[in-house]
Design brief:
Elements lengths: L1 E4 L3 E6 L2 E6 L2 E6 L3 E6 L2 E6 L17 E3 L2
Antiparallel strand pairs: 1-2, 2-3, 3-4, 4-5, 5-6, 6-7
Length: 69
């Protein structure tokens, strides 16, 4: 378990679960479910794929999905 509290926000990690909330950013990773990020550029969601039908990646620009609101 890791808890980080900084000048601009906080973060929590327990195993593969991760929650970060900083000024203008929200990031959530839930094992076997997916990753969610929300910031000033938009809302991003990357579900966990159980098959090999598409590219695997994370929300760092290598294969993530984008939802616009």
């Amino acid at each position: 378990m890791r808890v980080a509290c900084g000048k601009w926000g906080l973060g929590l990690s327990i195993g593969a679960f991760k929650f970060d909330m900083y000024l203008g950013d929200l990031y959530l990773r839930v094992p076997n479910v997916g990753e969610l990020a929300w910031n000033s550029t938009g809302f991003y969601w990357e579900p966990v794929r159980t098959d090999d039908s598409g590219p695997r990646g994370t929300l760092d620009g290598h294969g993530g999905g984008t939802l616009t609101t």
